[in-house]
Write a structure and sequence with these properties.
This protein is of the alpha+beta class and 727 residues long. It contains 22 helices and 27 strands.
């Protein structure tokens, strides 16, 4: 056992560490003199046995301390049998001495199922844990054991309540609505009220199945089977279950369950030509939390392939944006066109559009040349959107989950984009001349490099647009991510047409061209001014990279940017120096790639809990617990690279008015960070069929379904949603 450990820092020899660990164990006052907390203050343990058969533990971890997940052990006293403890995933990293480990910061909850022998009135067990102090003095405590002796609830029994049969429980508790003894679950609902099942078809090849449960009931994932009863050669693909809650079940062990509501997409294979309906049979099982387990139940629904469930559901599926968009293809195309058009006004894209407009103005060319500029720019936009759409759809078909802007979760791409923004800025500042010629210098050069420059500017516009989500885009992208491939590709191309439309109009409508200012010396000044938004974009991307991979990644990308600047500077100087002078360009360019290669191998920084005051870090377990307690919750799924997210935070969510609203409504603000790859948050986005971030969902206090808000927030919109959720 390692007594002394310097996590993620330079290490001392093992023998010296062992010696210091023994000294620390023998002289506890030494730790206090070095401002170290006693172990029970660094890790404050509390226990709750109010739920029969389940021990709930919580550690409050002091700042600059952490606990090891793998060093937690639980052992029971006489008359008590413990099940497998349930612990959330920790922050993963490789420890030089302990190997691959998981750690917890700030706090952690654990649940331990147990049974007791008849006549046992107290729960006695030992809880062992070990943790470390991660700043000077960087030491690890020896393993510490706490002895718990807790009074059991009066209704604790030798076998867990879920083992009762449905008939016996109903007989014992009487009719529905009868009051239950203190500490026991309320009388169980009839199964058709406890588990409501319904289905719709967003399009003929895809079904959406929904289970809805009242507060205090849950559905098993792996006790569910699906089939078509009127198949005729058709079959259902495996359902795409979102991430659920890991639950220690007395009957089935560690299982995945769903509380409140779960939406499950299912694809249909086979020839659907001429089919108007499908009949789906679902067999599933669930339980009352802390109460009984229902026997397997079977429901059959007939689904209209136009989109509505015609049987088997007592109420239609919620038609808010949290369901897959049931808009027709033409409506989705119109939304995409409008969304792409509005993208031109976003801060990500507007500088690029201005650059392109200036290049047309300064060229002074004919109408035919203006049309050529517009067409090549549009080609760059459409090819980029097509490539992006096909990539996302291919990964979707392979079972991966991606969203709009999620390519910025890849640190190497973020680093490359930062370098591209720097190169564009240097070009606009006049350090190097790239793309189309400046000041109409040389018709031959313009005719050769002009189309390539126009095409590249279109590509650049799509690249910088990806962190932005404009109004109208959300519905169109949600449709595209669930629609058949050709329809989805059409939506991506419509986004491209919308993005390219202003420049197309300038190129093809002479009246609009005449409205533009006449060429002059002011254009060179404007071009140099437009370099600074490019530099700011590069700085912002470096900031995103810092949050993804830490200081090492920032250092590497800054070195790459300096080498790139040197490469471009020498490239410009070598134009008149002959082959010998130009020979240095290639080594400098290759040197630029070296830090980017190293950047791709920098490990992620340890993900801690949200550090903002009054903000709870998102987890499915915390959300389920808050909803079970009747607390309204505002869930904010965001990312550092999401410009729309940051705008909403600045104008609405990071204001005193929003904090006062939370206090007045008793709501909890829960935030999930999608800056880096996070499968848990991806599953939440998929559950609400969101194409990416931002995603805002308000959960009411009565346990009803979450309400999805617009991607662009207003204070009045948020106030109305939280006020209604608190009723």
């Amino acid at each position: 056992m390692q007594a002394l450990h310097f996590p993620r820092f330079h290490r001392l020899p093992v023998q010296l560490m062992l010696l210091l660990g023994l000294l620390f164990a023998a002289l506890p006052t030494w730790a206090q003199e070095d401002n170290l907390l006693p172990v029970t203050e660094a890790y404050q343990l509390s226990a709750d046995v109010s739920t029969p058969g389940v021990l709930k533990l919580h550690w409050t971890i002091a700042p600059d301390y952490y606990l090891y997940r793998g060093r937690m052990k639980f052992s029971a006293g006489p008359g008590v049998t413990l099940g497998t403890a349930q612990l959330p995933d920790g922050e993963k990293h490789h420890d030089e001495y302990l190997g691959d480990v998981e750690t917890y910061h700030h706090g952690v909850d654990a649940t331990v199922p147990y049974t007791v022998a008849a006549g046992t009135t107290r729960l006695k067990l030992d809880v062992q844990y070990q943790g470390c102090h991660e700043v000077d003095p960087k030491i690890c405590y020896p393993p510490h054991t706490e002895h718990l002796d807790l009074p059991l609830p009066a209704n604790a029994v030798a076998s867990p309540p879920a083992a009762q049969s449905l008939g016996a429980a109903l007989t014992g508790l009487g009719s529905r609505g009868a009051s239950a003894p203190a500490g026991m679950a309320a009388a169980p609902l009839p199964e058709d009220e406890a588990f409501r099942f319904e289905a719709v078809a967003p399009d003929p090849g895809h079904l959406l199945l929904r289970w809805s449960m009242p507060k205090g009931y849950y559905l098993y994932r792996d006790r569910t089977t699906l089939k078509l009863t009127d198949a005729d050669g058709l079959r259902l693909r495996p359902p795409e279950w979102p991430d659920g809650v890991t639950h220690a079940d007395p009957q089935f062990g560690n299982v995945v369950v769903y509380f409140d509501q779960v939406d499950v997409p299912v694809a249909v294979d086979g020839d659907l030509a001429g089919r108007k309906q499908l009949t789906v049979q679902a067999t599933f099982q669930g339980c009352q939390d802390g109460g009984l387990c229902y026997p397997p139940m079977t429901r059959t629904v007939t689904v209209d392939l136009g989109g509505a469930a015609t049987a088997g559901a007592s109420a239609p599926v919620d038609t808010t944006p949290s369901s897959p968009v049931r808009t027709g293809l033409f409506a989705a195309l119109a939304l995409a066109l409008l969304g792409g058009l509005v993208l031109n006004l976003m801060p990500c894209v507007l500088p690029v559009l201005s650059i392109k407009a200036v290049s047309v103005l300064e060229s002074g060319e004919s109408r035919a040349a203006a049309r050529r500029h517009a067409l090549f720019y549009t080609a760059g936009v459409l090819c980029s959107f097509a490539a992006l759409g096909m990539g996302i759809l291919a990964l979707r078909a392979a079972g991966h989950s991606l969203g709009w802007g999620s390519q910025l979760q890849q640190p190497l791409l973020v680093g490359v984009l930062a370098c591209v923004m720097l190169a564009v800025g240097l070009s606009l500042s006049g350090v190097v001349q790239l793309g189309a010629s400046l000041g109409n210098t040389g018709a031959g050069l313009a005719s050769r490099s002009g189309p390539a420059g126009d095409f590249f500017t279109g590509v650049l516009a799509v690249v910088v647009a990806s962190p932005c989500t404009a109004p109208f885009m959300g519905g169109a992208l949600a449709y595209a991510f669930a629609a058949p491939m050709l329809s989805a590709l059409g939506v991506f191309l419509a986004l491209g047409v919308g993005l390219a439309l202003p420049f197309l109009a300038i190129g093809f409508v002479p009246a609009l061209g005449r409205l533009l200012p006449r060429p002059g010396r002011w254009m060179e000044t404007l071009k140099q001014v437009l370099a600074f938004p490019m530099y700011l974009t590069a700085a912002w991307l470096v900031w995103v990279l810092a949050n993804q991979r830490g200081a090492d990644a920032v250092g590497l990308v800054l070195v790459a940017m300096v080498l790139l600047a040197m490469t471009l500077w020498w490239f410009e100087r070598s134009r008149s120096r002959g082959i010998a002078g130009r020979a240095w360009v290639l080594p400098l360019a290759l040197a630029t790639l070296a830090p980017l290669y190293l950047l791709a191998h920098v490990p992620p920084v340890a993900a801690g809990a949200v550090a903002e005051e009054g903000v709870v870090a998102y987890s499915p377990e915390k959300l389920a617990a808050l909803r079970a307690a009747g607390t309204p919750v505002f869930v904010d799924m965001t990312a550092d690279w999401c410009v729309t997210c940051k705008a909403n935070e600045h104008t609405v969510l990071n204001t005193a008015a929003f904090r006062a609203l939370l206090q007045r409504t008793g709501a909890v603000y829960m935030k999930g960070d999608w800056t880096d790859v996070n499968p848990v948050i991806s599953a939440f986005l998929q559950q609400y069929n969101s194409p990416g971030v931002p995603l805002y969902v308000v959960f009411p206090s009565d346990g009803g379904p979450g309400r999805q808000l617009s991607t662009v927030l207003t204070s009045s919109m948020v106030e109305q949603a939280l006020t209604e959720a608190a009723k």
